[in-house]
Amino acid sequence: MPDVNSTPPKTLRVVLADDSALFRDGLSALLTAAGVEVVAAAGDVPGARAAAAEHRPDVVVLDVRMPPTHTDEGIRAAVDLHEEFPELGVLVLSTYAESEWVSRLLAGGADRLGYLMKDRVDDVQALIEALHRVAGGGTAVDPELVFQLVRARARGGELDRLTAREREVLALMAEGMSNAGIGRRLFLAPKTVEAHVARIFVALDLEADSDGNRRVRAVITFLRSAS
């Protein structure tokens, strides 16, 4: 089951930013058909920033590689937008499963941030759920990226302190799932999920702060250790 609330989600207002007009137009049509309001589209970072300031959307969707260098402009822009507009959700789309980029994106806090593979746009439901998640204050990391990181994880890191089940729970946390969503995915009782999450915090030496902050720090530990 998807990790969504029972109340009907509100209509999202979105700004799209990608230097490919073909991709922008296609994604705009897809989102519009799904009930999302695309309020503006831009081909570069300055255009995206201007549209965010003018329209104050719920989410800005950014390509990772944008003009002029087509390297990491989208990541840097996402971090800047997150700092400039704290209530804005930012979802980065990438062709590449780069854990370093995800770590940089989430380093200053993971609320209202997401990183999805561009292939994910074909799964409309997953894309819409990710948009609602970041708009609502949560985090969304592509499940395929998380899977690759788990599969490629080197031995001897901090994650070796966790049991297999705890790593499974942490991977779902990295995707942005709540405890309730994790419980539904793994067929675990709420108290069982809470116990796993608590043991993850202890195993990774994450001292009491706020539960949300510790979740973010746990996810960043996962991304760095698994890359």
Structure explained in plain terms:
- This protein is α/β, with parallel strands linked by helices.
- The protein has two domains: 13-141, 3-Layer(aba) Sandwich (Rossmann fold); 146-226, Winged helix-like DNA-binding domain superfamily/Winged helix DNA-binding domain (Arc Repressor Mutant, subunit A), CATH 1.10.10.10.
- It is 51% helix and 13% strand.
- The chain is built from ten helices and six strands; from the N terminus they run E-H-E-H-E-H-E-H-E-H-E-H-H-H-H-H.
- The protein has a six-stranded parallel sheet, with helices on both faces.
- Helix 6 runs antiparallel to helix 7.
- The longest helix is centred in the C-terminal third of the chain and has 16 residues, at 211-226.
- It is globular.
- It starts with 12 loop residues before the first strand and ends with a helix.
- Residues 1-6 have low confidence and may be disordered.
